[in-house]
Amino acid sequence: MSFVAWTAVLGAVLLTLALTSSYLRWMPVTTSAVCLVLGVAIGPSGLGWLKLDIKDASFWMEHLTEVAVLFSLFVCGLKLRLPLRDRKWWVAYGLAGPVMLLSISGVCLLLHFAFALPWGPSLLIGAILAPTDPVLASLVQVNDSQDFDPVRFGLSGEAGLNDGVAFPFVILGLLLLQQGESGSSAWLDEWALKRLLWAVPAGLLIGYCMGRGIGRVTLSMRIRNADSTLSPNDYLTFALIALAYVAAEAVHGYGFLSVFAAGLGLRGAEVRSTGDSQPPAEHLVQAVVGHQNVEPDAAIHGDVEHLDDTQVAAGIMIGDMLSFGSLVERAMEVFLVTLLGVVLITHWDWRALTIALVLFCVIRPLSVAVVPWGRLLNGRQRLLIGWFGIRGIGSFYYLFYALNHDLPSSVASLCTDLTLSVVALSILLHGISTQPMLARYEQRNRQLT
Fold first, then answer.
1. Packing angle between helix 309-344 and helix 54-79, nearest 10 degrees?
2. Gap between the Cα atoms of 115 and 125, Å rounded
C-alpha cells in the first residue's frame, strides 16, 4: 500500500480514538485493546483496507519498534525520582533480575516439554515473551515523579531494567540456533563476557553519566543566558535519547539500558537543583506557569514565591520533556498495536492460548511469589505485580531483531506466530482487567490512609 493509504488509515484510527475517548474512559478497556480490534477490522480478515507482510516489513518494523521502546524507556526513567539507595528500588531489581530469569526459564521449559520444540527456539521465544513492556504497561506504572507506590514503582523500574536480562538471552537463543550443533563452547564464554558482564553495566553507566552531565550543563547554560522558558526541550529529548543510545552501542553496551539510565540521570540533575525534600521541579513550576491542568497542593503553593532560577529552568525542562516523550510514546503505541491487529488473524497460533495462560497465571505469579520480598511488598501487592506482567512492543522489537538475524524459515514462522498471538492475548486480558484491579487497589489504599 502507498504511504498516503497508510497515513489515511492511521489518521482514521486516531480520529476514532479521539471521538470515543469520553466513552472509553468509563469502560474497563484500554486504548491498546481498542486499537487491536480496529486493526483486525481494517485488516485482510475484515474490510481489507490495510495489508502487511511481516517478512518484507521486518527491517523497518525492527527500527520502528526500537524507537517506540526508546522513547518509553526514557520517559520511564525520567519519572523515577527516588534515589537509587531507596529500598523500593529492590522491588525493581527483583522483578528485572530473578523474576525475569525464572520467566524465561519457565517459558523455555514449557515450549520444550509441552510442545516438543528444540532448546534453541524454546529459549529464543522464552526470552522474547518474558520481559514486561515499557510502552503498553504505562497504565500500571508511576503516574508522575511523586508516585512512590511500591507496585507502580517496581513495575516501572522493571520495565526499564529488564532489557538487561532479556536481551542477552535473545542473543543466546540466536547463538544456540546458529552454533549449538558445534562441539565448541567458546561462543558461550564470549556471550557471558560481552553480553552480560560488560554490556549491562556499560549501558547503565554511560546513560546515567550522560543524562546527569547533559542535564547539569543545560541548566547552567540556560540560567547564565536567562533562557529558561524558550529553549526547545523537544530537541533536547531527541538529542539525549540518540546520544545515549549511540554511545552505549559504540562500546557494545545495551542502548536500551543506556536510554533508561539517561532519564534517571537527567532526573538526578533536577533533584540536585531542587533538593530531595522539595516537590519535583515540574510540579513547582505548574503553580507558576500552569503547564499542566493539575491543581497544585498547598505545599506547592507555599514554595512558589521561593523558586530560584535553577528550579524554574529544571521544572520547565523536565515538564516539556515528559510531555513530548509521552506524546511520541502514545502515538507509537496506537500505530504498532493497530498493525498487530492487521496481521493477527494471518499469524494466529492456537498454541498461544496455552502459553499465555501458563505464562500469565502460573509462571509470572509463581516467579514473583518465590522471591523473598520481606516487608517490601504485602500479599495483595505481590498478587498485583504477579498479574501485571504485560507483554507488548518490547517483544515485537526482539521478534524483529531475531527475524533480521537469519533465522531458519520454520523457526521464523514459529517465533512470529507465537509472539504476535501471545502479545495480542496480553493486550486483551490485561487491557480488560487492569483498570478495575487498579481502581480497587487505589481505593483500598485510600481507606487505609
1. 150
2. 13
Amino acid identity of 254? Answer: Y
Whether this model's pTM surpasses 0.85: yes
84's grid cell: 537509587
Cell readout for 446 is: 485510600
Residue identified by cell 486499537 is 35
Other Cβ atoms less than 10 A from the Cβ of 303: the count is 16
List domains and CATH numbers for the chain. 3-448 (1.20.1530.20)
Residue whose cell numbers read 515485537? 396
309: left (phi over 0), alpha (psi -120 to 50) or beta: alpha
Q: Are 287 and 300 within 8 A, CB to CB?
A: yes
Which cell numbers in the block locate residue 350? 492456537
| More confident site: 317 or 209 | 209
Helices in 116-198 by DSSP H: which ranges? 119-129, 150-161, 163-179, 186-191
Instruction: Give CA 172 to chain center in angstroms.
Output: 22
Look up cell 564470549; give the residue: 190
Would you put residue 81 in left (φ > 0), alpha (ψ -120 to 50) or beta?
alpha
For 222-268, what is each residue's pLDDT tens digit?
A: 777 766 565 678 889 999 999 999 999 999 999 999 999 999 999 99
Q: How far apart are CA 339 and CA 311, in angstroms?
A: 42
User: Quick one: residue 375, left, alpha or beta (phi over 0 = left, psi -120 to 50 = alpha)?
Assistant: alpha
SS3 content of the chain, % helix, strand, coil (to 5): 75, 0, 25
The string of pLDDT tens digits covering residues 98-132 is 999 999 999 999 999 999 999 999 999 999 999 88
Residue 249, exposed/middle/buried by CB under 10 A (0-12, 13-18, 19+)?
middle
Cα-based angle 407, 179, 55 (whole degrees, multiple of 5): 5
